[in-house]
Amino acid sequence: MIMTEAKLFLREPAGPIFAILLPLGLLLGLGSIPGFREPSAELGGQRVIDTQLPGMMVILSVATMALSALPAVLVTYRESGVLRRLSTTPMPPLRLLVAQVINNVAVAVLAAALLVGLGNVFLGVALPGNPLAFVGVFLLGSASVFGLGLLIAAVAPSTKSAAGIGSLLMFPLLFVAGMWIPREMLPTLVQRIGDFLPLSPFAQALRDTWAGHAPQPLHLVVMAATLLVTGALSARMFRWE
Q1: In terms of Cα–Cα distance, which of 143, 178, 153 is closest to 240?
Q2: What is the DSSP letter of 137?
Q3: Which of 88, 57, 80, 87 is nearest to 8 (CA)?
Q4: pTM of the predicted structure, to 2 decimals
Q5: Rg of the Cα atoms in the chain
């Protein structure tokens, strides 16, 4: 099932290519700006290119796959009757969901690897200072965001509405996570609200581990709670037809 879905996945590669090339292009393009290569007082003396920029590009790739690509495919399968027909065969429809999640996560992992590797080679971006914690945060944070994507797929009545819901959630979540303005420059209230939303803890934990620090317990708890809540709601509310 995973291989079959991967072949279907690659027949329309626009989504995966976009999720890989857009963050990579932004990293390489913005990373060439001289101001981003200088220590910033607002970031505690760190360079934007070492923690803020690459971490947010990883978040952008994960969010694109989880909140846009995954819900659209699953809702399309439901609308076209694929899930209903699968439910009448010995093949459990749940396996299709698992295969879709695995393929989408694989794209996010590839994007993250390219961002880390090529950023280091071409721009001198620092490698994650706490690599094991970085990998753990990436996996937990990605799982929590994909849980949110599955919840969208569970409640969206149509493919168009799935795309709309995904965009409606993704862009505000990216904003409070620091995609366009570093979180340190946002109002304190917005920062505090962001601490309890899915993407902000993920982004900050990535930045912490990239800088060689341990992730903050609050951020790990929020990501784990998001995964548990969205996973439970998705399983309860998902409709096969």
Answers
A1: 153
A2: H
A3: 80
A4: 0.89
A5: 18
